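tool=predict chain=A
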Amino acid sequence: MWYSNIMKKLCILFCLLLLLVGCGGRETGGPIAYIPTETSASGPIVSNTDAPQATAAPLFTPEPTEAPTPVPTPTPTPTPTPEPTPVPVEVKLRQYVATMTDREKIGQLVMFGFSGTNAVSDEFARIMADYAVGNVILYGPNISRYDKDGGFDRCAKLTEDIRAHNATDIPLLISTDVEGGSVTRFRWRTKIQSANILGINDDPETAQLQFERIATAMADVGINTDLAPVLDVAKSPSRTFLGDRILSSDEEVAARIGCACIEGLQTGGCLSIAKHFPGHGATNADSHNTTPVVKKTQEELEAYELVPFERAVAAGVDGVMVAHILYPEIDPDFIASQSGIIIDGILRGEMGFTGLVMADDFRMNGLRSRTSLEEAAVRFILAGGDMILCGANHSYQRSILKGLTAAVADGTIPQERLDESVVRILAAKMKITDWAP
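tool=predict ok
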């Protein structure tokens, strides 16, 4: 009996102890003791749902995961601004020419001369101002070759005065005709060999160097165009009025040395103007005094006279001067300088020349004996020519300009044809000056 009582007391104390331990755990925030529940057939007698369930410890502790490296947002590549397409020079020139007055355009079509070695004459100064003359020719009387320095210093001052009378911002072509031999204009310290000697030697390097030296000296005194080389060929050069101005009776030699002369002039800073197209060597007559007549067919000319000119065109000659000669087998009505068949047809069309076409001097009787200067000027431009040469005769010069002005005004020379020549002239000027449209 006493043993039972003792066991009951011990059970009560044990239950109280368990109860106290559970309460202490709640107060201290420690873990809640698990109280096993008695069960019966109908289910649990005591429920522990009021107490939060202990969380089971994980089987392993995972390695800490590193934060991923942020991928930088790519900076969008800016779309490059395309470079503007360069405007072709010819387009720029045409746009510029469209802004010019007819007076300014017509002034570009002429290359005129005057008398004097020190300054522009008063009358020529008036013509330059009235008509905006765009180009000037210096002949022998303009150069004091017997000066101590051969005429170079005085010529430099003269060309400076010429430029001071320019009526526009477009630079002038200032030319002369240093060929060598009998046509040298200045007095040179080192002798300038004649065309004939250059042909006999048949040394392109010597010819190239001579004309480079010529061009450099002329450019230094303000001359930027040489009316050379002479590309006429003749079976007997001495029987023509050109004499030692002809390179050779052999068309291949004339072509070879002529191209070397052209290269020299261009390297030295001058435009080259080959002459006298389509060839002056088949006649003894002098076109300064009369109109020569050459009864050759085009096929005959192509086999001989035209060979040096064809090579010059292929070599990039800047200009071609056309002669006042009648070729009735090719054009029975008009001399070469007036003939569309010869200028537009043969030179430009068949030979493909796109450069400057100049007429020989309009003072020559080979031209004046056949027509008026006014009519000749208009015909030359309509035939495909670009620039009319006329030395120191101011009456002739005014006639030429009046004829051109009237023909442009009444549409005889269409504006398109006028602009075509002006574009070619300005393109030539761009080669040897800093000017640009």
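The radius of gyration is 49 Å. Confidence is low (pLDDT under 50) at residues 23-61.
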